[in-house]
Structures are given as structure tokens and as C-alpha cells.
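look at this one:
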Amino acid sequence: MTEQSAAAAARATVYGYPRQGRNRELKKAVEGYWKGRVDAAALRETAAGLRRTNWRQLADAGIHEVPSGDFSYYDHVLDTSVMVGAVPERHRAAVDADETQGYFAMARGTQDVAPLEMTKWFDTNYHYLVPELGPDAVFAADSTKQVAELTEALALGLTARPVLLGPVTYLLLAKPAPGVAADFEPLTLLDRLLPVYAEILADLRAAGADWVQLDEPALVQDRTPAELTAVARTYRELGGAADRPKLLVASYFGRLGDALPVLAKAPVDGLALDFTESGAANLESLAAVGGLPGKRLVAGVVDGRNIWINDFEKSLATLGTLLGLAGQVDVSASCSLLHVPLDATAEGDIDPEIVRWLAFARQKSAEIATLARALTEGTAAITAELAANRAALASRAGSALTRDPAVRARAAAVTDADGRRSQPYAVRTAAQRAHLRLPLLPTTTIGSFPQTTELRTARADLRKGRIDTAGYEERIREEIREVVTFQEKTGIDVLVHGEPERNDMVQYFAEQLTGYVATRHGWVQSYGTRYVRPPVLVGDISRPEPMTVRWTSYAQSLTDRPVKGMLTGPVTMLAWSFVRDDQPLGDTARQVALALRDEVDDLEAAGTSVIQVDEPALRETLPLRAADHAGYLAWATESFRLTTAGVRPETQIHTHMCYAEFGDIVQAIDDLDADVISLEAARSHMQVAGELASHGYPREAGPGVYDIHSPRVPSAEEATALLRKGLEAIPAERLWVNPDCGLKTRGWPETRASLENLVTAARAIRTGPADDGS
């Protein structure tokens, strides 16, 4: 390993860090503020304390340069909209009256004002708030947050690098504002936005910033020549500004492709690139353009999205090659550590053999520091660390926990016929209508009902031994009875049991499948104050016994109406877990599909006539490059069909997707061969209904009419208007009426009112003039 000179000693850095705190202090403070228990000053103090803790943890781990500005109360893209003055007109009065309340009104809406649309951040499970822009947009710089957080970090004696979302990615993530022509391209606003960024950069320099990072992850997607020209213009202008800090342009989640030579030529001072999954492609491209002579390269060699320990020898080999391609090589993770939990040492319930294979944010920071030390001082300086790393990698590779011959033999025996229903859709739908006898525009929900404080308390009491299993299960039965009674009284046609026994739609199943490990403290932000604990997929997957039949059958015993069986699909089971990286994803998906197929068969045998297999992550997991789509969609759709294809024609298979851009996977949705699909549509104003119609989608669909990620209650008139818009694209005999997503995060009062309005809307259209839309 070649040592760098003292003048070019490798620095350890990260692009971002988990925001929530060890005990999710941020969630509690923000939700307390929403409920009036915490004032704005106390909220700010909690946030400042979390930032101080994060920076000190990073410094103690050996990180030389900490990020600032990556912290957010809700979402960093929303923070960017505030920073550049892109506040929608409907939120302007709220923001002007009270900055903090206005910020959350943009995120969550109010009873009178709808929030910004929410969708997935590239191919992760993080959600961002979509900027709304139009041709009349006026930008204005507000660097208050960024300057304040930089000042806090510098006051602690740290070297800090502010992190901003880059202007090109910001505009590419934006959508036309309501009322603006759908073909409006926000990137046409670039010339108005760049002076605002230049002003913010000048403010940060004046506040003491030596470097500022501009994140451009959109550049790892396929980009047009016009978009690449915009990239060149952006960094020519920002790089050419006289009053600016040094600029580090960061891109991650994949290979840069044609954007790399554009950035390499730009007058910026450094690039930060992902050298993990797409490392070979980025390395080859960097060499092809002649490297970055005289510039800084931040090499993301530690995986920022998964939780397995780094292979030090592999990373050092990559870093050694990069030393000849840049003036300065520093070490980082492949992306922000926002996407992993905080600390693996907190997981005392996991087998110690497995814990040694895991690296959460704190462990990854230490790995980065170790690699930077080796890069500067040589591998002899980390002899002990290298030996421990080799031993842990060998432990995982040879562990019996990772392989089950029976599971592998079953997966190998799968044939194409196993993934095909016994009858085509036209035959199935006739059988299902005769069997279920549902009305026009049938109403249903997506699955979960509110997880009340009482339910969470009962779950905690069971875990801590304050109640026994019998007492806990009686509480679950009470909740199911209440949910079923409410749905019957409200007039919902296809019921659910409400999922009161489930902690999370992935974790619940992972805890009952072999091969998965659940964490106790592995919280990761999904959106806003919504945190999940993705389970860890360690080994081969099987289902020892039924997982959902008991509670579904109990709910069905309480009513004559059909009750849906509710499962999480194989792609989502992978996407919302930390997956194993020692075999192809498609192989793991097939194992999960076979385990779920057993559950589907058992539900049907128990008398369940409607079974929903949720796949909200199908679009989210789509690779960022078009060339990689076909391979992914082949195994993704196969795994869904393998899960569901064994049922009889009269058994109706549903699926559900939410908060993603569906237009480019409509064919894949069709290929799933589900009988009914429900999708998010309320915030996007039924956009997906038109996309399904344009494709000629032949099956039944329920584009959502109730945005469950906002506390506001949609009126019956609002739901009716959305349904009428849906009927313009989908005939009434194929249109379902449902919320956007599950109701777990909502309270009972708003849930009751919203579902009553939803049913009122469906009944109004059944009996009104809108029947001519069929």
C-alpha cells in the first residue's frame, strides 16, 4: 500500500448522519411540537443537542471533517425549498406567520391546505417532499439554517463541511405546480436558481466554510444531452464565482456515466463518488477521463446503504488505485449514513456471531477512519484491525446460519408453470364477481388501522412480562372486533382485520421466517417522524408455520363480508430489509416468494377469498439506469407471481403500491397478473389512473382518494371529485375506492371521518350521473 505524504494525508469524512438520536429524541420532540406539548424553542434545543452529539460521535470515531446542514426536522429536500424560497403559494401565509408551523404545513398539510407531494428518494426507502415549481417561480436565498448549523459545528472546534442539495438535482426532482402545464420542465428555471446558490455559497464562506458539498445524485441516472449541458453550465458558473468556498460535487447510488467527464472538466475543486456497488464502472470512467489531477477525490468505499462490515483489503486495493488518479484522495461512505441505523453495539439480543458481521453508522465511521489511516500511514498501522476484519468476514462466509440445503433445493426446482395462474384474467374475474358479489365501485382499505397507544403499550407490556400471552391476545381480539364493527357500520365492502398484532409490515413477517434477524434499536428514517427497523436478512428463508391465518380467520368469523388476507410481497420484504450481499437478489427473492406462497395457500384453505400481497417497493427498487431495468423486473415480477399463482380462479389477488413514480413500470404492474391493484393517487391528483389507461391496463384498480400521510380529513366532495377524475380513465366496473395506503400512522377520529366520507363518495357516484363514466 502506497503511503500518502504528510501534506496529502487522507481525511476521513461522511456526507450525512442519522438524525433521530439514540432513542429517537427527534421524533418525540417533533411530534410533541405538533401536539402542543413542546414549544418551538424546546424543539430547536433538542435538535441542537442531537447535532452536537452526532458531531462528537463522528469526531471521536476519527472523522476529520464532519458534515453540517444535513440535519432536518422532516426532510432535506423540503429544507432546500425553504433555502431557495420555493414555497408554494398556498403555504406562503402559514410560512410568513410562523416559520416552523409553516414548514410543517408544507410537509403534512393542514385541514385547509394540502401538503407537498411525497415520493421515494431515488431507489431508497427514504421519502422526500417534491418541490412544486412553475414558469413564474421566483427564488430568494435564505441561508439561515445552513449558516447557523455551520457556526454550531465550528464553535465545537470541528472542521465542518456544509452539505447542500445541488441545483440540478433539485430541479430534476421538482414537478410542475398545480395548475401548471404538465409538460413544464423545472430545469428551465436553472438560470434563475444559480444566482441564489451563489449567494448562499458566499454566505457560507463568510461564515467560515472552507469546503461546501453540493449533492447531485440525479446524475447517476440516464441524463439527456440537454441536462448534461445544464450540469456543465451550473458548475462553470458556480465554480467561476469569485466569492465562494471550495466546491465538492458529490454523486452516489451508482455510476456517473456521461456526467463524469462533464464534472471532471468543471472548475470545481473536488468530486465525491460511489466506489461500492458501481465502483469498477466509476473507477474505469475516472481513469478514462484522465483522473482529477490537482483536485480532491472523496472515495465512497464503505457501503452507506447496507449494514455489513467493510472488506478492508478490497477497499484498500480500490483506494490504492485511486491514489494515482487525483491530487488528494479522502475516504468516505458511498452516500449519507442516513440510510442505516445508528449503532450495532446496542443490539444485545442478536447472536454475537452475527453482530460481528454488522456495521451501523457508528461502526461505518470507524471503518472510514481506519481506511484513511491506512491510506496515510500504510497497512502496517492497522495490522490488528485487518486481522479482525479478515476473521469476521471468514466467520460469515463459513457460517451454517447462512445456508439451508432444503431451501436451496426447493428454489432450484421451480419451473415457469409455478408462476402462472391456472386461468386467464377474463375467466378469473367472472368467477370472482360471482363468488364475491360486490357492488359497483367496491370500497376497501389497504390493510392497517390506527396503532393506538393502548396497542403499543400492550405490546411493550408483553415484551417486559407485565402481561401474559393470553392477556395480550385478548387485547388483539378486542381491537379486531372494533375494526370489523366499524367497517361494517360504515359500509365498507371488503374488510381488513386492521393488523393490530403487527409492529411493521416487514418486521412482523421477518420475525416469523427463518433467515431473518430483527433488531431492537435499528431505527431508520422513512419520512418525517416515521422510523422503521429494517430486519437483517442473514441466511436462507423458509416459513416454519402459518403467520397470518389465525387472525384473518378470526376477523372473518365476525362478519359475512369478505375479509382480506394481508401479506407483504417478496420484493418489499427485500427492499425494506438489509439484504444479504453474498448472493444475487433474485435468488433471495425466490426463497421469500416460496415461503409466502405457503402462506397464501394456507389462507385460501382457511376460507379467505381475497388476499392482498403488498409490493409498494416494486418501483422503488427499480435500478436507476434504464439498461438495468429488464433484469430486475424479470425476477421481481416472477417472485410476485410465484407467491400468488397457486390459488383458485375465484380467489381474488390484490396488490398495493404507494409513493413512487409508476408511469415507467406500468408494464411490470401488468406482468404481476394481480386481479386488483391499489395505488397512491391523492397527492398526485389521479395521475396514475391516466397512466394505467394509457397503457391499456385491463384489470381492476383502486387509485387512492384519501392521503393518509396528512392529518387532514378529505371531505366527501373532495373524494367524489377524485373518483370522478379516476372514472375518466378507468371504467366504473373496474374502479375500486380506497385510501392511498395503510392507516397505521393515523388517529381514530380522522380515520373514522375520512373513511365515512370515502364511502359517502362511492355511494354518491353509484347512484348519480357519474355512472356514465363506466
User: Anything to note?
Assistant: The CA atoms of residues 162 and 747 lie 38 Å apart.
